[in-house]
Amino acid sequence: MAITKSLYGELNGVKVYTFTLENKNGMKAEIIEKGATLEKLFVKDKNGNFIDVLSGHDTLEGHTERSDYQGVVVGQYANRIKGGKFSIDGTEYTLTKNDNGITCLHGGGEYSSAVWTGTETSDKSLTFTYFSKDGTDGFPGNVKASVTYELTDNDELILAYNAISDKKTVINLTNHAYFNLNGFDSGDILDHDLQIDADYFTPIDETSIPLKMAEAVNNTPFDFRTTKKIGKDINNTDCVQIKNGNGYDHNFIINDSDGTLKTCAVAKGDKSGITMEVKTTLPGVQFYTGNFLDGTILGKQEKPLTKRCSFCLETQVFPDSPNHQDWCKCVYDKDEEYKSQTVFAFSL
Fold first, then answer.
1. Could you tell me if residue 138 is left (phi over 0), alpha (psi between -120 and 50 degrees) or otherwise beta?
2. Could you give the CA distance from residue 167 to residue 140 in angstroms, rounded to a whole number?
3. Which one, 76, 98, 133, 175, has least CB within 10 Å?
4. What values do phi and psi take at 61, rounded to 5?
5. 234 Cα distance to chain centroid
6. pLDDT tens readout for residues 248-284
7. Which residues are catalytic?
8. Residue 78, exposed/middle/buried by CB under 10 A (0-12, 13-18, 19+)?
9. Per-residue pLDDT for 180 more than 90?
10. What's the CA dihedral at 323, 328, 331, 332 to 10 degrees?
11. Does the CA dihedral 304-189-110-115 come out positive or negative?
């Protein structure tokens, strides 16, 4: 195993470093301190070549000025909170409405915009830490957050999240990696195979806010219980949910989730032969297909990020759960530890 560290750039007078994890097989993960961002992930394809399977950016300017959350850690509450407000024990909290001026998305963007502090914690792992002050973007509590990236010799990238607050608050952390298992510059992901272990998904309105917690996937374009091409039903305009999301941009409720590590999804690149298995301790996974990328944002090597050039599988607590606290656990007491783990396992 090997870890290297180098200066990546400077943001508002703060030095930003990049770290590279490499295992004995030659697989590499590159993470930068801005947003604790998983920037590059080199995986061996069926031809023996190492390809970067992440869409996104390769300059600090790209990450700060063009990013649509590519590869970042998002919090304090990932996904959307309706109306940018929620209540705990009768106290209402008003949040930053950074999504069309009506919704709080990914905690207002605080965690993804911040410079985290990276530290080598072993010969195969790195821990990034961040301190969020009470009231930032409206969220209660001084929160100490961390994410540890570990790259194993079994070609698994393990992400372990921890957070603790000095006030009762909501917490939901995830990584917003955009994957293309054929390589970041290989075109769209419509011919990727995908299986999601979910009998139910969370339907949304036209503003991407949940209408209710669960709707059956049976006989809908959202049935990925048996492997199918991502593009098979993505343009089914007879489906209101496909229209509302402009494709897939929905939470899937993982079957038999009980807080232990379970496989929630398996994807395979049709050209590369690379298979990615996603495991998590969390109850949900947001499947997003890059529906709003339109080529105007330039990504790696100054190439445009086009519609459906990549997909996301964001493990999470369900969207808008702070306003539906019976859906799943999202509120943490003072000094109660938030913990979760997600694994991206690669094979041919």
1. left
2. 6
3. 133
4. -60, -40
5. 20
6. 999 999 999 999 999 999 999 999 999 999 999 999 9
7. 176, 314
8. buried
9. yes
10. 180
11. negative
Model pLDDT, residue 178? 98
Per residue in 184-222, pLDDT tens? 999 999 999 999 999 999 999 999 999 999 999 999 999
What is the pLDDT at residue 226?
98
Tokens of 18: 């990049």
Q: Which long-range contacts (CB under 8 A, 24 or more apart) does 51-54 make?
A: 51/182, 51/183, 51/272, 51/274, 52/183, 52/184, 52/300, 53/179, 53/180, 53/181, 53/182, 53/183, 53/184, 53/269, 53/272, 53/274, 53/276, 54/177, 54/178, 54/179, 54/180, 54/184, 54/310
Residue 208 backbone zone (phi > 0: left; psi -120 to 50: alpha; other: beta): left
123: CB partners within 8 A, 6+ apart: 1, 2, 3
The pLDDT value given to residue 154:
98
pTM above 0.85, yes or no: yes
Q: What is the mean pLDDT of residues 287-297?
A: 96
What mean pLDDT comes out for the span 153-181?
98
The label of the residue with tokens 């049709």 reads 270
Residue that is written with structure tokens 């961002």 in the block: 37
Structure tokens at 221: 């374009």
**Bridge pairing between strands 193-196 and 228-229:** antiparallel
